[in-house]
Amino acid sequence: MPEHPRQRRHPHPFPLPPEDRRRSAYTGWTRAHWEAVADGLLHATAPYASPRHGLITLPGPRPSSSGPRSDGLEGFARTFLLAALRVAGSNGHDPHGHLSRYAEGLAAGTRCPTDARELTSAEPDSWHRIGTVRQARVEAASLALGLRLTRPWLWDTLDDSVRARVADWLLPALGPSPVDNNWWLFGLTVGGFLRAAGVETVRAQAAIDRALTRIEDWYRGDGWYTDGDNRAFDHYNAWAMHFYPVLHAHLGGDRTLLATYGPRLHAQLDDYTRLFDANGAPLPFGRSLTYRFAATAAPWLGALTGHTPLTPGATRRLASGTLRHFLDRGAVAQDGLLPLGWYGPYVPMLQHYSGPASPYWAAKGFLGLLLPAGHPAWTGPEAPLPAETADAARPLGPTGLLLQSTASDGLVRLHNHGSNSTLAAPDPYYARFAYSTRTGPTAGGRLPTEDRPLPDGPPQLGEQPLPAEQPLPDNHFGLLLDGRLTTRGPATPHTTGPGRASSTHTPRHADGTDLPGIRILSATLVHGRAELRVHLVTGAAPGTRVRQTGWATTPDGPTAQLHPVHGYDTPPRRTPTGSTLIGPGTRTAVLEGSTTSGPGGTLFAALASLTGDPDPAPVHTLATTHLTGHGIQVTWHDGTRAHLALPLSPAGGDGRAGPAPGS
């Protein structure tokens, strides 16, 4: 499957070399394409530098919560990391003079560190002190990693006074992390550079040890960490929890650390690389999605260290496919800048800490440039991705996440029965029951003021809009109380196994308060493209209305289907649901029903499907179901049978899920 049939081509903003379809049959791209994109991104940001290059302040719709000066430091640090990977990967060859600009910026930014958040003419280049704005600690990690990568060509050439000032600015990052999650690894990264440079080596080693000790508390096995004392399982596993320790060990030649963290990376990649669509798209699930092709950092790191389940050709196929996927869809604007968003600008997916330069952590995705030009990952023939070689329906380690992919269309779906946001409010990028590589969470029934108006006009025949004030989340199940839909509380995983996952949660009022005494037990069974979605509601008053929604698809996107099986009393209707990060004009199918007075709760079941295949058969033809005294018997269209036992038995105390009785 060299190219997915649905490609929305945008002109590339940078001149690129000719494609090589002999070596790269799937993408046509080579190392030279990566170098050209890196150079193009760096050239495009250079005009936004302060007078002596200490800050790079990019245009954008708004500053981050840390303020304009922090955003300027972010622009410097993250583009510097990209420049460092570009130059280090060329063994110091720097024909465009990238490092000379950053050398000047290092001197200017540390000459007079400031506490001021705003930019002033008196201090146009000065950096924040790390103790003043905590975001500076994040950027210190990119600076330190860039300095470590380019040490012979940059750090070792700086004046002693500049080296001393840079070291003094970095040292506070060695203290305890102000945020108890992956932020500990910023101290590890700064410590790794300072120790290698012979600066405060005892203190630097203490920061390294402290960080590694802390993240050990969060390792759950099978390559998966939680991102703090929670159940936040997402791509931060790949581009933070594994990225920093494994790269630190590799750069330091520390075989002891690699013996621990290398196999964990391999295990993570065995799951993670299955979350990439055949069209190159990574899965938009979790926060900080505006980093885009940073998603390729961990696969490149596996190739760099030898800890990967992928062949070298499959690694390049994945990484080049992802980078090209975004460029082909306008993720890099014609001025060469990365806007805040997914493809084009998209404000609803951003976090408060997102500023105009935040997308440039996409620099991590260029880690492959550290592989020499003669490495098999650059020279070998591209190989297909897991998503396009065979169907998959498997749980992802201890996460409560269920992977579902289909080789016929290369589409990947993820069903969430165990990962939760770190935020108190429901987060559409964690709280949905399902995500895919070709859909995104709806922003709600009303478009944000920053978004474009819907182009699709009034509902078409057979479609019913919801009231204007009622947001409609996709892939959601909730109760309708006083006309408002409940949200999903934190999910507690129950059983998982091949083709199935389940969880329980306490629903919440729209204002975020729990509904005591009400529980919803949810399960998903998958086979091919078919999904059986089951919910058992207990504790709700008889006659309480419930609502199940399906996939939110754009007019040119995949085909979504939803069919009632049990408990629903309305036919599926499609309603406009605004924009997603994929595009505007989405529509989502809706089912409704009512709870009854049965002693064991009320059961609701529906069949759903999302497919890129042309002219798919109706979803109800993909399975037959039969309610038994102990659950649901399912016969899939190919004769395969499955049984969902109800009620489900919970997972063990460590959060790992065991088989359900009768499954």
Summarize the structure.
Helices cover about 25% and strands about 20% of the residues. It is of the alpha+beta class and about 675 residues long. About 55% of the residues are buried.
Structure notes:
With about 675 residues, the protein is an alpha+beta fold. It contains twelve helices and 20 strands. It has helices spanning about 30-45, 70-90, 100-110, 135-150, 160-170, 185-195, 200-215, 235-250, 255-270, 295-305, 310-330, 375-380, and strands at about 220, 225, 390-395, 400-405, 410-415, 435, 475-480, 485, 490-495, 500-505, 520-525, 530-540, 545-555, 560-565, 575-580, 585-595, 600-610, 625-630, 630-635, 640-645. The strands form five sheets. Strands 9-10-11-12-17-14 form a six-stranded antiparallel beta sheet, with no helix packed on it. It has a five-stranded antiparallel beta sheet with strand order 8-7-13-16-15, with no helix packed on it. Helix 1 (about 30-45) packs antiparallel against helix 2 (about 70-90), helix 4 runs parallel beside helix 6 and helix 8 runs parallel beside helix 10 (about 295-305). Residues about 1-5, about 445-470 and about 650-663 have low confidence and may be disordered.
Mean pLDDT, nearest integer? 91
Q: Give the termini separation.
A: 35 Å
SS-based class? alpha+beta
* Overall spatial form: globular
* Beta content: 15-25%
Return residue spans where pLDDT drops below 50 for at least 5 consecutive residues.
1-7, 444-469, 649-663
How are the strands of the biggest sheet laid out side by side? 9-10-11-12-17-14
Beta-strand segment tally: 20
Radius of gyration from the alpha-carbon trace, in angstroms: 25 Å
| Helix coverage percent | 25-40%
Count of helical stretches: 12
Tell me about the largest β-sheet: 6 strands, antiparallel
